[in-house]
Amino acid sequence: MRLVVVQALAFALFSTLFVRLYYLQVIGGEGYQAQAANQSVRDIVVQPQRGLIVDSQGRPLVANRTSWVVSVDRTLLGKLDADQRTELVRRVAVAVESTPEDVEARLVTCGDPGSVRGTCWNGSPYQPVPVASDVSKDVALRVLEQPEDYPGVLAEQQSVRSYPRPYGINLAHVLGYLSPVTEDEYDLAAERDDRSLNGASVVGRAGVEKQYDEWLRGLPGYRRVAVDSMGRVLGDDSMVESTPGDTLVTSIDAKVQSVVEKQLAARIAYQRTQVDPVTGRKYVADSGAAVVLDAKTGRVVAMASQPTYDPDVWTGGISEAQLAHLYSEKAGTPLLSRATQGQFAPGSTWKPFMTAGALTNGYSMDTTLPCSSGFQVGNRVFKNYESGAYGNIGFAKALEVSCNTFFYRIGFNFWQKFGSDPADVDAKDPLVEEAKEFGFGSRTGIDLPGEAPGRIADRQWKLDYYRSQKDYYCDLSAKPQTAETSDFVYKFAREFCLEGNLYRAGDAVNFSIGQGDTIVTPLQLARAYAALSNGGTLWAPTVAKALVSPDGDVLRRIAPRKVAQVDVPKKYLDYIDSALQNVASVGTMAWKLVGFPLDDVTIRAKTGSAEVYGKQTTGWVASYTKDYVVVMMISQAGTGSGSTGDGIRAIWEALYGVDGETVRPARAATPGTVPPERLPQFLDDGSIMPPLVRKTED
Fold first, then answer.
1. Residue 62: which of 187, 286, 216, 291 has the closest Cα?
2. Partner of 461 at 20 to 30 A CA spacing, among 60, 213, 413, 505?
3. Residue limits of the Penicillin-binding protein dimerisation domain (predicted)?
């Protein structure tokens, strides 16, 4: 009986086993086969090549190159015991010249405990995690040839940004840089079903890299690979090719950009060797900017800022020390673009717009006013530069010699006529209105992120500022003066607390010559001078001209965008234009243009020397022809023509091919204004056809 029972049990067990096997292999076989296949196949993201960025002649400004990247497969790493893992991480750290702590930090998934923002891994948990990029080929080969020493460690070539630097240009602030996608950006892309982003993507953070990021980034592909039980890759299963990003064609001319950058850097370096006659100290010349615009369209031909930085510093990841340097005030905050984000008092370059405001509000082209050495307002005498005096003069002569007291009188007269009540916030101010008419106090709309708006220091601004600072200064003045508070600060706090909201005559006369609290960006000033050149049109400056597919098809042409038309009669614009020609030929800029062929290349110019409390003078020159606008400024560098005049001349010589006193068009840096329809020619494979090389005169 016992034997029968055992046999029955054995039969029942085998029957159950056979039934289960039949179910697994026959009834549910296909489903389990699919699950097994999924466990042995993994998807690996193939990053696309980012689109090129080229100048107006097709010269590459940003391209791509291959870089050896070392990655670690965390799936295999997790199957090692603690000692084996520690030893592997140490070995990898030594190979890539890093530290085990840094390698471990890169292996942590973003959002997990211990993750470090900017260092942690933001991609797929099944994808090898990059722990070092731009490693040498020898390191990569060592990893590939010694798999027994580096289990689960991969070395492969990936595409990273490169900077060909035609004519040695930098252009960092215009081009921008890339950094890894953040968790928030990745999650938002997932919500929008945006497949161009994945956890291992890099995105634009500044410049045109950010502005046109969606066009440049392309679409990633996917490689399915077969793996064994240890997670090791056995071979490819299938492949979905990535789609390269589109090419961005810009209005930048690399030849002109090269001249502009070199001249700006040279003028700053030279001014640092010169002595300020007022203080007896050498000029600080701490920063500067230069802008060249197409006067007819607002397109940016060149734009430079100092201090600058090497855009390649972002490739492969930036160190904390390098990032701290870019933001360091001691280093001059190199990451800040002075052309679009720097804000400075415009000084006398402001006067042409004040002339337009005066002529359209009661003054005439025949008006004459005293250009005395000083002009008293209340108990203060506002003086001319070096206390010069020219007698009774008109607007044209006032611009030519840059007479401050002439414009002081205009500002004071308007203040007396419309706003002598300093507490009246709504009082009319023709000069303020004219400044806003020319676009000051608001962003130009350039296709670059982070543009500063500048500031019109009118009555409303002064009231708003008073309200924001009143509590601080009233609290300071209510306490007894301490050793840490100077007499000036203590006195200022008391006066500000009592009447800091009042817009007095001194504010009005300061405004009339571009001093006081009004600030502009070099780009804003260049755009306003372009309006003087082209008959009053305010353009939104543009860097991009077109987007071209990898196949060479023009996807989108980016046309110049008109923002406004200034309400100034043509006769007044022509009058100001004629006066600014005199500035270049016989006025404050003439000494820097001796021998320049002004009959062939008619330059209009205005110099400016803006005084800033506690600092040395900021020097400006704003100039234009009917083709271009050229503006250059250097902070804490002395007078406008003295600090930037030579640089301005050199740029004009390059633009028109000026050789001594002769214009040689064949030597011009750019063959005239490039029309928006003219784009680089592309070959069948999508690469750029080299530009035609023109013979130059001896």
1. 216
2. 413
3. 46-235
Q: What are the Cα distances from residue 162, in Å, to 45, 47, 179, 310, 694?
A: 22, 16, 14, 11, 27
Q: Is the pLDDT assigned to residue 681 strictly greater than 60?
A: no
Residue that the structure tokens 């690996």 belong to: 44
State pTM to two decimals.
Answer: 0.86
Residue 127 is classified by DSSP as S
Start-to-end Cα distance in the chain: 119
Q: Long-range pairs for 110-117 at CB < 8 Å and ≥24 separation?
A: 110/183, 111/183, 117/182
Average pLDDT score over residue span 147-151:
88
Are 302 and 256 contacting, i.e. CB atoms less than 8 angstroms apart? yes
Assigned token pair, 410: 């205009």
The pLDDT value recorded for residue 676 is: 34
* Residue with tokens 């280093």, as numbered in its chain: 331
CA separation for the pair 207, 204 (Å, rounded): 8
Nearest to residue 545, comparing CAs of 553, 556, 537?
556
Q: Which residues contact residue 215 at a Cβ distance below 8 angstroms, ignoring those fewer than 6 apart?
A: 51, 245, 246, 248, 547, 555
Q: Is 39 exposed, middle or buried (0-12, 13-18, 19+ CB in 10 A)?
A: exposed
- For the stretch 536-591, pLDDT in tens is 999 999 999 999 999 999 999 999 999 999 999 999 999 999 999 999 999 999 99
Residue whose structure tokens are 């007479």:
403
pLDDT at 693: 39
d(CA 425, CA 463): 8
Q: What is the pLDDT of residues 401-425, one digit of tens each?
A: 999 999 999 999 999 999 899 999 9
Average pLDDT over residues 440-461: 97
| Dihedral angle computed from the Cα positions of residues 594, 595, 600 and 601, in that order, rounded to the nearest 10 degrees | -40
Distances in whole angstroms, Cα of residue 215 to Cα of each of 53, 575, 622:
11, 45, 35
Residues 579 and 353 sit within 8 Å (Cβ to Cβ): no
Based on the number of CB atoms within 10 Å of its own CB, is 111 exposed (0-12), middle (13-18) or buried (19 or more)? exposed
Helix ranges (H only) for 199-253 are: 207-211, 213-216
Pairing relation of β-strands 129-135 and 554-557? unpaired
The β-bridge relationship of strands 380-383 and 202-204 is unpaired
Q: Which of 651, 640, 609, 637 is nearest to 287 (CA)?
A: 637
Q: Retrieve residue 127's tokens.
A: 């994808």
Contact 190, 103 (CB under 8 A): no
d(CA 656, CA 297): 18
**Closest to 267 in 3D by CA, of 651, 663, 549:** 651
Distance CA 204, CA 182 (A): 12
Q: What percent of the chain has pLDDT over 90?
A: 66
CA-based nearest residue to 259, from 302, 289, 300: 302
Largest interatomic CA distance in the chain: 138
- For residue 177, how far is the Cα from the chain centroid? 9
Half-sphere CA count of 491, side-chain side, radius 13 A:
3
pLDDT digits (tens, 9 = 90+) for 253-292: 999 999 999 999 999 999 999 999 888 999 999 999 999 9
